[in-house]
Prior knowledge:
The protein is of the alpha/beta class. The protein has helices at residues 8-11, 29-40, 56-65, 93-98, 112-120, 146-162, and strands at residues 14-19, 47-53, 72-80, 88-91, 103-104, 125-132. It is built from six helices and six strands, in the order αβαβαββαβαβα. Strands 1, 2, 3, 4, 5 and 6 form a six-stranded mixed beta sheet that branches. Helix 2 links the parallel strand 1 (14-19) and strand 2 (47-53). Helix 2 packs across helix 6 and helix 3 runs parallel beside helix 5 (112-120). The relative contact order is 0.24.
Amino acid sequence: MSSDAKPEYVKKRVLILGCGNMLFGDDGFGPEAVEYIEKKCKIPEDVYIMDVGTGASKVLFTLALSEIRPEKIIILDAVDLKRKPGEIFEIPIEELLKSKTIDFSTHLLPATNLLKELQDTCNVNITILACQVKRIPELVKPGLSNPVKKSIPKAAKIALELAK
Length: 164
């Protein structure tokens, strides 16, 4: 496959992925953060922003098989690690692999091994930028809690800083 036929996101230096399901409260943090960045921030030419919803694995699999790929991948996702709601923090991939019992987004857990492979085998710098949820409802209920909603500008700023 020629370089022209490859998806645009494999050709950029940095890829920022928003993971989550907007139908389940604070789980929509990643997609909401990506939307905020796209609408309110200046995105450098070499950065690609993408809402992957609950489909991070497909994008990561494409990257793992590609001979060209970004230098950095920044993942924005919601977690429940019993911290203060709205707190933004990084989670190392190794921490996810050690204990898959932590309450990390179910849509990213299947992709954890792909992230580790991209980091270790393909030399891609991986950052998981997480937001502590206040609530993720069991039934469909769109909309972020106030603490998570208020954390989005900070998360956007950190993600773009990490993209440098």
